[in-house]
Design brief:
Structural class: alpha+beta
Number of domains: 1
Radius of gyration: 17 Å
Strand content: 15-25%
Number of strands: 5
């Protein structure tokens, strides 16, 4: 049986948009907080290079007061950052974080960590790394990106 897409009413569309804006604001605040906790003071965000896959993941490109530029990933996954030299664009940054998290998880598990919290964190990293890679590898998500 074929499922039909239900058209959203204007009220439902407005609510969905409002929820997306709130989610994006929360991700932005989390990204700024993460950088500040690492001693990096954000100066501005590069909107044209940032990408949002609500409600899963936001990839921000921040210019910092130290003159450097950073990728920051936020959303339903650990917040993390890397210097912009790690990836040429938001899509590549997803692949970068995916690989880094898998390496970090391996490192946690290989150090003989048997503390439940560490094992749980390593498993979370592996799970989110796979999810990020799936988004990176999903061509239709990036159809409008310039090559």
């Amino acid at each position: 049986m074929e499922q039909q897409q239900k058209q959203l009413t204007p009220e439902e569309q407005a609510l969905a948009e409002q929820q997306r804006v709130v989610w994006q604001r929360e991700c932005f605040q989390n990204a700024q907080k993460h950088l500040a906790e690492k001693g990096i003071i954000p100066k501005s965000v590069v909107d044209k290079d940032s990408r949002f896959l609500a409600p899963l993941c936001a990839m921000w490109k921040f210019k910092a007061q130290n003159g450097k530029t950073y990728w920051v990933v936020t959303g339903r996954l650990p917040t993390d950052h890397a210097e912009v030299s790690a990836a040429k664009d938001a899509r590549d940054a997803m692949r970068y974080f995916s690989m880094q998290w898998q390496l970090k998880a391996d490192q946690i598990m290989n150090t003989g960590a048997r503390d439940k919290t560490q094992v749980d964190f390593a498993n979370l990293l592996i799970n989110r790394a796979h999810g990020l890679y799936e988004m990176y590898d999903n061509e239709p998500l990036w159809a409008n990106e310039s090559k």
